[in-house]
Amino acid sequence: MLDLDPLLVTFGMFFSMLILLAIGAPLTWALLTVGVGSAYFLWGPAGLELLATSSFSAMDNFLLVALPMFIFMGLMLQRSGITDDLFDMINKLMGGIPGGLGMGTVIICAIIAAMAGVSGAATVSLGIIALPSMLKRGYDKKLVTGTIMAGGALGFLIPPSVLMIVYAFLARESVGKLFAAGMMPGLMLAVIYMVYIFLFALKNPEKAPTIPLSERLGAVDKIKALKALILPGALITTVLGFIIGGVTSPSEASAIGAAGALVCAAIYRTLNVKMLKEVLMSTTQLMGMLLWITLAAVFFSKIYIGLGAGMLITELVEESSLSPYMVIVAMLATYFILGMFLDDFAIVFITVPLFVPIVQELGFDTVWFAVLFIISMQTAYLTPPFGYNLFYMRSVAPPSITIYDLYKAVIPFIILQVIGLTLVVIYPQIALWLPNLIFGS
């Protein structure tokens, strides 16, 4: 290997990658191009063997089987009609409360997050179903779009989260522990959103009106409306219960979830060959993208680690005058900035191999840090200029709602997420209480 300063090579690798991304190269090819070039430059032709070995080690993990299964489960439930019934139920139950439809939308987003495991599912689904209905009832467009985008981002935190599975794979953490750790912070953020919407509606009743008295239901009809929760509730409880309770592995539970989604679609009488083909094709496309990013990013990180730059940065952090908590804050700030420009999977593959050893050296709980990372990714998905949920919403919003409206709409919810992140930093037990209760300290 050439006798070069690891920090200099690190700067060259990341700067080259950012240049390629800036000129429009796909993330996978940016990582592969820089990785192959760096490996050849550092170690000659023999360095390219690392591409084969890193690819094999990345794919030789049974945990990855859970990814296509959970993606299939979410897409199947999304297209079965369950989401429509859930929103109709919320409209009947909470329409008479100030901001009730907004608060109910957050609840539906949390349920879809538990069904789908990805952020875009809830954002797109409710953008199609809830957005027109709420605008028609006189809701403020910024409140509606901000609520749907922020609620959709709960898919990162509320299990079964696909990003959590990828994080667990890279950090060698227990998926069950991460799922348990994400539950309470996810519910906390949902409650924070709902309190904000309720207070907003009290202050601005004309921007979040209640439904007319003639459309409100009695107690008996409200109880009947809850039947829409039976199928998704049973499936979510089964899948998460099996994982957290240790009955099955995440991969086995994902297969149960996929089979259960097929049963739900059959009960709703929406299962047909055409829909099945579309769901399988969408699942294949998403998994193809994820696997290519995985191979390229693991190869990139292996070069980085083999160079010794990871240890060097760890030593620099340990020798700096920053307190351990300030190091954590600096890492979270890095995530926040990266999230403005990079995909969440790119960030997790690039930073986890570097940051997790530092967190361990500083003596912090790595499960707690995983939750901080996931919340940071939630915020990143809402942060301009390239927050993905902004573009998901723009793709389904009417022409009267511009991208600048969406930028303004997410500002209050970004502030709320930063408040939630701060609470988890100050009070780690918000994230650790449930996994400690289930798995022990």
UniProtKB/TrEMBL annotation:
It is a multi-pass membrane protein. Keywords: Cell inner membrane, Cell membrane, Membrane, Transmembrane, Transmembrane helix, Transport. The chain crosses the membrane at residues 12-42, 62-81, 101-131, 143-170, 182-202, 223-247, 253-271, 291-313, 325-355, 367-386, 406-427. It comes from Amphritea japonica ATCC BAA-1530. PANTHER family: SIALIC ACID TRAP TRANSPORTER PERMEASE PROTEIN SIAT-RELATED, SLL1103 PROTEIN. Part of the tripartite ATP-independent periplasmic (TRAP) transport system. InterPro entries: DctM (IPR010656), TRAP_DctM (IPR004681). GO terms for molecular function: transmembrane transporter activity. Residues 15-430 form the TRAP C4-dicarboxylate transport system permease DctM subunit domain. GO terms for cellular component: plasma membrane. Pfam families: DctM. This is TRAP transporter large permease protein. The keyword Cell membrane applies. Its main location: membrane. It is found in: Cell inner membrane. The complex comprises the extracytoplasmic solute receptor protein and the two transmembrane proteins. Belongs to the TRAP transporter large permease family.
